């Protein structure tokens, strides 16, 4: 397709997708419009699970806008701007650590940088420059010169919002590890290794074991704090990535009463809590390392889901899934964002341990990003519906999060996101039989059973 044809086609995709988005917002009588970025009040759709039409429309807009700007701008302009996104990330880190969003809540109409500086402890001109950078990318709002207020995006940076916790995880250990990714890949030994103890995180931290060992806090109080922060941040990650699509797009209501679901490596149980609220007929098991299980049992669930505890619908059991099998004979073994944390050899260990616990009727559900290639293939050769042309078939920037996460996994754990074919190989090596893929929108469920 000629360039001028591509531009027109991309603009048409954006216009058509925008109409779809507007039609979905119009379904809410109390707020029948797409909120302005200056609007700090939440919209009912903010935490709702998007249906397929809305999700595809948003991904189309994101992908087409990015592809359009990359097409029309000079290549040097585009690449230099991308190199410099590291400073936006650092500015977000400053805003969260200095709790600027919390401070601005005291004056919703706007606060001068002199007052922000006094309350945060940051030098006023420097914090002002940080906020202006972020406001230029639509996070915070400069009301008048040097006077800033919260907006629709910065409200998620409040210290009470789990999104700020997952943000600190990315700006702290993840970014500091990623800085050393090139050096790690160039290392004659580590560059070709898939050991979780020979990755950029180890170079950055000097810690000899894996990041999740560090989070257990046995050797360091700082590691324990990061682990607890990650546990809370997982809730924010789940909201951002619409992990709750599992609750709506999998036929839980069709399962017999008393169906047992074992959430392996489920952290404090974000997904399990959603299942407990939505489907009280399920019997739930939450398994993770002892520190997270204690946090879930003693802090999170009594506050967020006490009824499940009172009705004995949830069992908390610690596990080291690399050396132990989960609770035996559950109907469903659910692993969300577990397999992507480990290299192939360890994934096979984990799945083999699950297989040992399975009854003949048991199913394994691996909930992960499922990577698509960036090249277009015939429709009958693709596991997923491809984006409309001239978009990249995987939606490009519209689904960039999973590809960014793939690089993050390389940096902090020496692991990876995987394709359907890769998941099938892992399951087969563990003695499991591939059944099907459930499309959950941003992510998917890869289902296995016993042969």
From TrEMBL:
Domain O-methyltransferase dimerisation: residue ranges: 89-159
Phylogenetic classification of the source organism: Eukaryota, Fungi, Dikarya, Basidiomycota, Agaricomycotina
PROSITE patterns: SAM_OMT_II (PS51683)
Domain O-methyltransferase C-terminal: 255-431
GO MF assignments: O-methyltransferase activity; protein dimerization activity
SUPFAM superfamilies in the record: S-adenosyl-L-methionine-dependent methyltransferases, Winged helix' DNA-binding domain
Keyword S-adenosyl-L-methionine: yes
One biological process term in Gene Ontology: methylation
InterPro entries from the UniProt entry: COMT-like (IPR016461), COMT_C (IPR001077), COMT_dimerisation (IPR012967), SAM-dependent_MTases_sf (IPR029063), WH-like_DNA-bd_sf (IPR036388), WH_DNA-bd_sf (IPR036390)
Record protein name field: S-adenosyl-L-methionine-dependent methyltransferase
Keyword tags: Methyltransferase, S-adenosyl-L-methionine, Transferase
One Pfam family per UniProt: Dimerisation
